[in-house]
Amino acid sequence: ATTAARSDHTHGTPSLTSFTAPMLGFKLESLPLYAAATQQNAAAGTMLAILVRPGAITISSLGLWVITAGVTSSGVNGMALYSADGQTLIDQTGDMTAAFGGTGFISGNLSSSHTLADSTNYYLAVLTHFSGTIPRIGSSATFAGNIPAINGNIPSLFLTSQASFPSSFTPGSASKNSAIYWMVGF
To answer: Which of 2, 22, 127, 152 is the most exposed place for a label (fewest CB within 10 A)?
Structure first.
């Protein structure tokens, strides 16, 4: 007797959704890589911040995916880690101008390793300054409207007119964003 194959039967071929952060060597990510199907501007002087809840881990580097390279740097270019209330700039990478001037996965080391607490939110942030072509980074599809605050948390926000990473910011006073950028920690 023969048995019909089940409707959920697969042959083990990986799909984009099967790639996980740990498989790629990351301890945290703002959204799954497969969801970063579009690219968004990282406009000069605009700090983009994405809410993450990684669990109890230790990280020493941050990374993201540059799809369009920046041309003609005009200031600070890097990534940072903030407390969820925005009141503490925990750490930031060194200058990443050369990295943002290329394409592909880029990463920068924080000044030291940081142990993140379980059941605690943090913000991953990126800030660039290019006066020619501005970098475009991998992101989720842009939503029709800005992503609202949910249970008092703002998933994606931005601050304009930033010469460098601020030592603190107030998430509720920041502008809500319409995209979530793919950022990682490891």
So the answer is: 2
Could you tell me which of 103, 57, 53 has the C-alpha nearest to residue 83? 53
| C-alpha 33 chain-centroid distance | 11
The structure's pTM equals 0.87
Name the DSSP letter for residue 150.
Answer: B
Task: Return the amino acid letter for 56.
Answer: A
Token digits for 45? 């002087």
Structure tokens at 128: 């660039």
Which stretches does DSSP call E strand in 10-103?
28-29, 38-41, 47-52, 57-68, 78-83, 89-92
Buried-exposed string 8-26: b where 16+ CB fall within 10 A, e elsewhere: eeeeeeeeeeeeebeeeeb
